[in-house]
Amino acid sequence: MKIITVYTMPNCVYCTRIKEWLMENQIKYKEVGSNEIVDTDLIDTIQGFPFTIVKEENGDEHTVLGFNIDMLQKLI
């Protein structure tokens, strides 16, 4: 099972669109608001929002910047 975490920002149109797409496709995810991020390394990594991390069962992590449905479909 893959763990999907979506980092979002208030009033971000693409953040709203990615959450809608995930819900429409019945994909479970965890949302973390930009004001909730405490990991300074992660803050330095995030280049924009939405920022999605897909974690595989084996521990591998893949990141998706923005509302990139093609990349999400490949990873999920």
Describe this structure in words.
With 76 residues, this protein is an alpha+beta fold. Helix content is 33%, strand content 26%. The chain is built from 3 helices and 4 strands; from the N terminus they run βαβαββα. It has helices at 13-24, 40-45, 69-75, and strands at 3-8, 30-33, 51-55, 61-65. A 4-stranded mixed sheet has the order 2-1-3-4, with helices on one face. α1 links the parallel β1 (3-8) and β2 (30-33). The mean pLDDT is 94.
Number of strands: 4
Question: Span from first to last CA?
Answer: 10 Å
Widest β-sheet, arrangement of strands: 2-1-3-4
Shape, principal axes of CA atoms: globular
Task: Tell me about the largest β-sheet.
Answer: 4 strands, mixed
SS strand fraction: 25-35%
Encode the helix/strand succession as letters: EHEHEEH
Query: What is the C-alpha radius of gyration, as a whole number of Å?
Result: 12 Å
Mean pLDDT: 94
Helix content: 25-40%
Low-confidence stretches: none
| Helical/strand content category | alpha+beta
Q: Can you count the helices?
A: 3
Give the topology.
Layout: E1 3-8, H1 13-24, E2 30-33, H2 40-45, E3 51-55, E4 61-65, H3 69-75
Parallel strand pairs: 1-2
Antiparallel strand pairs: 1-3, 3-4
Quick recap:
This protein has 76 residues and is an alpha+beta fold.
Any descriptors?
alpha+beta, 4-stranded mixed sheet
